[in-house]
Amino acid sequence: MPNTAPIPDIAIEDLVREGRVSRRLYTDPAIFQLEMQRIFSRAWLFVGHESQVRKPGDFFTARLAGRNVIVSRHTDGKIYGFHNRCTHRGAEVCQEKFGNRSSFECPYHAWTFGTNGDLLSLPLPRAYNDNFRSRKSEFGLEQVPRIGSYRGFIFASLRPDGVDLPTFLGADVRAAFDNFVDRAPDGEVELAGGKAVQRYHGNWKLHFENSIDFLHPSILHRNAIDAADHTFGHRDPEEAPLEVDLVRANGLTLGEWDRVGVKALERGHCWSGGFIQDTVDTDHEHITGAAAKKKPDTPAQKRYREALVRRHGEERTNEILGFKRHNTLVYPNLFVNSGVQRIRVLHPTAVDQTEQHSYVFRLKGAPEEMFRIAVCVVTQSNTPSSIVTTDDHEALERVQEALNSGDREWVEVSRGLGREKPAADGITAEGTNELLIRNQHKAWLGYMTGAL
Amino acid sequence: MQATVASVSLELQHEVEQFLYHEAELLDDRRFDEWLALFHPDAEYWVPMAWKQPDPHQHISLIYENVEVLRMRMQRLKELAALSQRPFSRTCHQMGNIRIAENDGKNLVVRSASIIVEYRRDDQRTFAGHVVHKLRRHGNSFQIDLKRVDLLNCDTEHGHIRISVPF
After folding, report:
1. Which CATH number is correct for A46-150, 2.60.120.20, 2.60.120.200, 2.40.40.10, 2.102.10.10?
2. Half-sphere exposure of A177 (CA within 13 A, CB side)
3. How many CB atoms lie within 10 A of CB B165?
4. Looking at chain A, which residues constitute the CATH 3.90.380.10 domain(s)?
5. Out of A231, A357, A398, whose CB is closest to B75?
6. Which of B64, B78, B83 is nearest residue A395 as measured by Cβ atoms?
7. Where in chain A are all domains bearing CATH 2.102.10.10?
8. Residue A346: in which H helix or E strand, if any?
9. To probe the interface with A, which of B84, B156, B163 has the most A CB atoms within 10 Å?
10. A125 vs A109, A120, A129, A140, CA distance in Å?
């Protein structure tokens, strides 16, 4: 169990106050070590998708709270998770990122393990004494304490006890995964198209907070928006390519951003309303007040909608495609975007080092064009060459550098304090309210003090 | 391979090399409008994110853009307000190993190796890539139909930091 005693000279409770937090949340390496123990080693974290382990013997390796784990489908049909570390001398057992195997043989001394982690064989067994032989069952690969799936999305937790996965996610987050899968005409999605990795020299929380901060886009991304307007402004908006829509989506007025509603949930989770013209549902009247911004459906989009109607009927199809959310955030490190078939995961590697891994999913039964669109969204938005998120990450690095300067201890996050509204299972607010950031800090304090 | 090399005249080899050097110079000098003007209106610019990536639609790329979208990318660099380009990157695009792999008189496929050094905010970075140019005859010069750059570290997990100026 993680040690929850405060380390000398840090009183965790004093670091989070109403509407402000200590800069040490972002800069202190000792705090970061505690976060890895108390947040990342306790929460349920996304590790992959069942489409990566369809058949017995299918496996992939994943990062879990900085650990290297293997997720594998065993012959009993169950999914197992175990540390990628030989129980003999500690070598990495599996070097591939994914594949299919009947067993895992350590390349160093050939200890061999089953796809459920059990030790199957080892060289020179007679060289071991009775004591070892009687304990042979203890030498299986070390299991991850808990592993489970929701609608095909696999999560694991290094904490042996605590709430189950559906409870951890809560109704509003489960709805995001439900919508993700319901958008597939065959009722199934598969992870495909590789992975996009972005890295920045900054604390992980800066990005998690930035993704639901709706004051910054029209300011920080102004030059990208101007570039889009300069290049395409004279053209019929219907002719603008998707890449341009993605950039322009940042250019709402502050009043419009406020109408992008946000909701804070239990355990630090949250979601924000839709604002990017997504691929099939582009009714943005609720934000801009301007009707008919919707582009006509392409032939592929028409076929997609028809396929959904065949499965779900007209009314349910409208509900599925009308699910108006941009990000759903699962604290501490997951972004779910069902409208663009995307999952993003934050992997902190040091107090000032973070990676974001972005994944695309194919909707089974949908025209291939829908997958191309999803690939295009990630290529444009979540690679190190994005003309939008490169500026986000630059800003986060400037924050990380500047926070060390001066004696001022506090970072201010009180915008909109007192303007929130209670709602079922959470709290709602206008888009530019810093409620969601405060909600993350509340969960941070909960995990760090052992209350969560 | 011997036959291919022998079939290229010194004059054509020289012409192609000068075109690639000119392109590199335009990027290093941040003469982005002139760089864009080298592309045919239907051209594509592609930097894959998987090694030997066969298809830009089935897998995420670092950059996969037509000229219109590329124009937006370059316009942003000209605005000079992008935080990630304050200060802007200094680059040195070095082109080498230039081979004319195919030539039917109108269209050429040129393969080369490129080393790109970028300096910004006290940090110097090196990229290396295998480059393919698909060129078409255009007056007394060429137009680019496709520029593809396969970076050695296209799929790195730990090395990816912001990329602003194209390769």
Report:
1. 2.102.10.10
2. 19
3. 21
4. 170-448
5. A231
6. B83
7. 46-150
8. strand A342-350
9. B84
10. 12, 11, 9, 15
What are A388-399's pLDDT values in tens digits?
Answer: 999 999 999 999
Q: In this structure, which CATH number among 1.10.357.140, 3.40.47.10, 3.30.565.10, 3.10.450.50 belongs to the domain B2-151?
A: 3.10.450.50
Phi, psi of B23 (to 5 degrees): -60, -45
Phi, psi of A329 (to 5 degrees): -105, 130
Q: Does the pLDDT value for residue B6 go beyond 60? A: no
Query: What pLDDT sits at residue A1?
Result: 43
* Rg (chain B; Cα; Å): 16
CA distances from A219 to A209, A222, A388 (A): 16, 5, 12
B60 contacts A193? CB cut-off 8 A: yes
H runs (alpha helix) in chain B: 2-6, 10-28, 32-36, 67-79
Contacts of A243 in chain B (CB under 8 A): 65, 69, 72
Distance of alpha carbon A233 from alpha carbon A240, whole angstroms: 9
Strands lying side by side in the sheet with A45-49: A45-49, A153-157, A146-150
Which residues of chain A neighbour B83 with C-beta distances below 8 Å? 220, 391, 394-395, 398
Q: Which residues in A122-266 belong to E strands, given as ranges?
A: 146-150, 153-157, 189-200, 262-264
Q: Please tell me the distance from the alpha carbon of residue A183 to that of residue A181, in angstroms, as a whole number.
A: 5
Domain boundaries, chain B: 2-151
pLDDT at A93 over 50: yes
At a CB cut-off of 8 Å and minimum separation 6, what does A63 contact? A47, A69, A347
Q: Residue A369: in which H helix or E strand, if any?
A: helix A368-381
Look up residue A276 and give its two tokens: 């990017």
Tokens of A106: 């350590």
From B47, B58, B79, residue closest to A223, measured CB to CB? B79
Q: Under 8 Å CB-to-CB from A139, ≥6 apart: which residues?
A: A87, A88, A111, A119
The ipTM estimated for the assembled molecules is 0.94
Q: What is the DSSP letter of A50?
A: G
β-bridge partners, A155: A46, A148
Q: How many Cα atoms sit within 13 Å of B98 on the Cβ side?
A: 18
The answer to whether the CB of A436 falls within 8 A of the CB of A31 is no
Residues A97-113: tens digit of each pLDDT: 999 999 999 999 999 99
Structural fold of domain A170-448: Naphthalene 1,2-dioxygenase Alpha Subunit; Chain A, domain 1 (3.90.380)
- CA distance linking residue A323 with residue A340, whole number of Å: 12
